[in-house]
Design goal:
Length: 696
């Protein structure tokens, strides 16, 4: 019996010798050699179950491996699934994690006429080593509680694995005995870390989620939705309490005054110094735990110094001759690296591999440049007039870049990434088209949203997944003096937006709450309940548009926050945007319908629907006049409309990958930029001539 990879198939079991699913027609041979032998997690309803499926697979030579399949089409889920693949691939020489080959990450296309929603044809897959051996939960059921010597050995192994993982800005979030494998040679392997399901649910939901952690092992801050690197240390401590006592943490008594585990009497075989260290790992306060993995390893060295001898006694110091040889080799490597670096800058032209996934795309205000950022941690800049790529590098950030904004004067732009350090940066767009790094903006969590103030971009607001919002002076290049104001918001921030007069900063979170913050005086001006999106008018600081979870779109007067006009979208809104002249609102609903509202004159919206089958995933106004707007559909087609809601043109993207972003060139509204899920970016001349309301 083998399984069909299609999560929407109604009967996934097939005979072993079948080449295609007997129910939905999907190929049963993955990458021309792998068959799905059995699921390693229960299969569930694809619309309500887990985002990740895990299978044991076998190739044509009989080698067993593990295949993870992401079945959600959510962009953030895709980014973090691919990020896990990248990290595991970069760690493929480390035996403490499952090994992934360089081509272990791939995409699988479901058949065009198969059983699946039309916008979910593509599955993201990760093929990795199948670890032989037992997990430590199974091992503990067959053995007694571990000794101090074994505990110190395993602690050091896991600390070294975490050191490599944390160094790449990834943390596990679900350390427990069941997620630690013991190979037959006695080496440990940490499995299921960084799994898109765990990391992404935290990112997407931005709050408490019972699926993110395992109760009894998770740190207090993690259960509040604010996991950090030190959360792994807490889970590591709880894991070793389980291994040393033979009892699950939840089964042990607690001290009533502190609510900490009363476990030491159940582990009489260990020393007080080791028990103190494990209690330090489990400290309720993040600050009381080891600062990082280096500090953790140093503490282990104090408790149990590593063996620095060989079988023949202490190793001698290197001789003078060996120092000369080592120095010569080091010198050669340095010269080689310098040569590569110099060549990188003097070689003619700029080449670049396709983007792994476009996170955001933006034209410079003068339309001279089009920039994209992507999950492969690369910034790409091209000239739209000749489609020439002038910049393609992985600058500054240590992880996938997720946000990009140009300043209103076009002289600067800012980027943000899913890094725990180096997570926001400011760049200069030089007159000759070159790009210079100006300065960092540091947070202690992923930066997920940013925006410039309207007046030449003097101020930059950044916001994190942990709710930290900061306003920076972009003209001050001293990190310690450039932070003008900071705010701790309640939960994951999805968007920030300045009012035209720069008086207010609107903050919206995944908890469906909005806050209007008078940031210069640090005053909370207005709390907006049940709000999922907001936008200030780009032409009049007086007006603020809000979209609430009940489907109502409102325009408020910011002088008193009274309601000016309301319309019922009759769907859950996912995005709103003012036209450049401020007269229209473009709204996208969860039903994939785009609606246009001339809010000062109309009490109803106009549905932008050229074909009843259209499902809109992205939209944009023409940047200067706002007289045209474009909507992109899941089937790869694009419709262009005027601002009265009159359909003008249909464009076929000729791409089976779904469109993720579109944008008009600010200086040439006849040109559209289109970014697709496969990372490609196209420039389309949608009209050759515009005369009044006529489009040719």
């Amino acid at each position: 019996m083998i399984y069909c990879i299609n999560p929407y198939c109604t009967n996934r079991q097939n005979p072993y010798n079948a080449n295609y699913c007997q129910t939905c027609g999907t190929s049963l041979l993955i990458k021309d050699q792998y068959r799905l032998v059995r699921p390693l997690r229960p299969l569930s309803d694809p619309f309500n179950g887990f985002n990740i499926e895990v299978f044991e697979v076998v190739n044509n030579q009989g080698t067993l491996k593990v295949l993870k399949v992401l079945r959600s089409n959510d962009r953030t889920l895709r980014r973090l699934f691919v990020r896990e693949a990248e990290v595991l691939t970069s760690l493929r020489n480390h035996q403490g994690v499952p090994q992934v080959e360089s081509e272990g990450y791939f995409r699988f296309q479901l058949p065009k006429n198969g059983q699946f929603p039309h916008n979910r044809r593509e599955l993201h897959c990760l093929l990795m080593e199948k670890i032989e051996g037992q997990d430590l939960e199974q091992w503990l059921r067959e053995n007694e509680a571990i000794s101090q010597d074994l505990a110190l050995d395993w602690l050091r192994q896991l600390a070294q694995i975490l050191h490599e993982i944390h160094h790449r800005n990834l943390f596990h979030r679900d350390i427990k005995p069941a997620n630690i494998m013991l190979r037959p040679n006695g080496k440990l392997v940490l499995i299921d870390f960084g799994a898109a399901r765990w990391v992404t649910q935290t990112i997407v939901n931005g709050g408490r989620n019972t699926e993110v952690y395992t109760y009894g092992y998770a740190a207090p801050e993690q259960m509040d939705g604010n996991a950090c690197l030190q959360s792994d240390f807490f889970a590591l401590g709880r894991t070793f309490v389980h291994l040393l006592t033979g009892q699950r943490p939840n089964d042990l008594p607690k001290y009533p005054q502190t609510n900490q585990l009363n476990w030491r009497r159940s582990a009489p075989q260990i020393s007080e110094s080791l028990a103190n260290f494990i209690d330090e790992l489990m400290a309720p306060s993040v600050e009381a735990r080891p600062r990082d993995t280096q500090a953790l390893l140093q503490r282990l060295d104090i408790i149990n110094p590593p063996d620095t001898t060989t079988e023949n006694g202490p190793q001698p110091n290197p001789t003078s001759r060996s120092r000369v040889i080592v120095g010569a080799i080091a010198g050669f490597i340095i010269i080689l690296l310098l040569s590569v670096w110099i060549w990188d800058y003097i070689k003619p032209g700029t080449t670049c591999s396709p983007a792994l996934d476009v996170s955001e795309m933006a034209f410079s205000p003068d339309g001279r440049y089009l920039a994209t950022v992507s999950l492969d941690n690369t910034l790409r800049v091209l000239k739209p007039n000749n489609n020439k790529l002038i910049y393609c590098k992985s600058p500054y950030h240590k992880d996938g870049i997720v946000a990009l904004k140009f300043s209103p004067d076009g002289k600067k732009f800012a980027t943000a990434s899913l890094s725990l350090e180096n997570n926001a940066a400011l760049w200069k767009m030089n007159a000759d088209g070159s790009i210079s790094f100006l300065r960092p903006f540091e947070h202690r969590n992923f930066v997920v949203a940013l925006t410039f103030s309207p007046n030449k971009g003097k101020y930059l607001a950044t916001a994190t997944a942990g709710g930290s919002v900061r306003v920076w002076d972009t003209g001050n290049f001293q990190q310690s003096n450039s932070e003008v104001r900071s705010k701790q918001y309640d939960g994951y921030v999805t968007a920030v937006d300045f009012s035209l007069d720069e008086k207010y900063l609107a903050i919206v979170g995944r908890n469906n709450k909005g806050l209007i913050w008078e940031w210069q005086t640090n005053t909370d001006k207005k709390l907006l309940n049940d709000v999922v999106a907001v936008a200030f008018s780009p032409k009049d600081a007086k007006y603020l548009a809000t979209a609430d979870a009940k489907g109502y779109i409102k325009v408020l007067d910011t002088n008193n926050f009274n309601n000016v006009n309301t319309v019922d979208l009759k769907a859950y809104p996912t995005a709103i945007s003012f036209s450049p002249e401020g007269k229209h609102l473009l709204i996208l609903g969860a039903d994939k319908k785009a609606k246009l509202w001339e809010w000062e004159k109309q009490d109803e919206t106009i549905t932008l629907e050229h074909d009843p089958q259209d499902k809109v995933v992205a939209f944009a106004f023409s940047s200067n006049s706002g007289r045209f707007l474009a909507t992109a559909n899941t089937n790869g087609t694009i419709n262009v409309w005027d601002n009265n809601g009159t359909w003008k043109k249909n464009l076929s993207d000729n791409n089976s990958n779904s469109i993720v972003a579109i944008a008009f060139n600010p200086q040439d509204e006849k040109q559209l930029a289109v970014a697709s899920a496969d990372g490609s970016v196209k420039l389309i001349k949608w009209s050759s001539f515009i005369f009044g309301s006529w489009v040719f």
